[in-house]
Amino acid sequence: xxxxxxxxxxxxxxxxxxxxxxxxxxxxxxxxxxxxxxxxxxxxxxxxxxxxxxxxxxxxxxxxxxxxxxxxxxxxxxxxxxxxxxxxxxxxxxxxxxxxxxxxxxxxxxxxxxxxxxxxxxxxxxxxxxxxxxxxxxxxxxxxxxxxxxxxxxxxxxxxxxxxxxxxxxxxxxxxxxxxxxxxxxxxxxxxxxxxxxxxxxxxxxxxxxxxxxxxxxxxxxxxxxxxxxxxxxxxxxxxxxxxxxxxxxxxxxxxxxxxxxxxxxxxxxxxxxxxxxxxxxxxxxxxxxxxxxxxxxxxxxxxxxxxxxxxxxxxxxxxxxxxxxxxxxxxxxxxxxxxxxxxxxxxxxxxxxxxxxxxxxxxxxxxxxxxxxxxxxxxxxxxxxxxxxxxxxxxxxxxxxxxxxxxxxxxxxxxxxxxxxxxxxxxxxxxxxxxxxxxxxx
Length: 443
Hints:
Radius of gyration: 23 Å
Mean pLDDT: 97
Helix content: 10-25%
Distance between the termini: 63 Å
């Protein structure tokens, strides 16, 4: 008799687990439930949909339920799992558009319920015109509202806030970005944050740092944002102050969370309960530099989580060893990339951390239109072990971060970086690549 895998949540991790399990074990019955209108979509593309660079939101969908059906995977949208009867090995599902509920038995269960935006408990947060951005439906609603908006306010200066600031400017809107911390992109080191702020202001974004949002005001619809620095007129507000893992369903039937607040898993993405896995933004990873649980809610990590879980459920060998915290974002003409630990985080983790900060160029000085490329390298004093890097450059130039990420996965040192035979030609790099310049200075 065939076994049944039930997947709760049908985006990156969930559908990767479903598809991989079915491919690896065709005898397995696989059913995935997703409460939104879409499965397998790229939420990272939503800011670019808001900018108008992507024609319709369906372009963000990698595979439809119909395509999954051809692979033998049943993917049901607008179906929400509202209860898990672990002892009875079944889930209660609400068919949201049909107004009915039913029980679905399972042999194996994957919890991939993702994360949700944080909505501060502020007066007026529920007014029309105040949005969060997480699902395609959010993007459709915001883009429709932009048509009648002139003055926009973004609360939060992290990745999403920065990307949406560019999107709103691309639509010709006035943009004010508010950040509670003293600088934008507060997870970066100060040198990087300052360059990001310069780029925002150069492109017409008003930046207010060290500013607290106290309320939203308006008659049924947002009209003003009340802050510690005064009131700002607003036709549209985006709340982008962080996300939290959706663990409530999992914890309701005994799944354990870890120190990050996400679900604790091993290298096979198993939870503390037999036959239950967790993957994606709802689950922890392990940071390879600190050895500690780490929460990295990014699409590439979610896909790897899901693929690993699906392989193991199908009876094959697989392991997800961990992450080094690599990420990249684009803010107008500049790309900002990270891997490993910032200098502040490295010191907080107990490392005797040192750093260098250099400014170079992305190509030979005599080749037309060179662009500045800034590199911060963080390393351990004495051993020279690499701990992290941050790059600010022009578009794809920042992808050099992957060189450092690779070395971090292998425990590499400043000497290892200096010794690399990196490709050189005038259109692509100076004769001394900026990474090598930074490594030489660190040495």
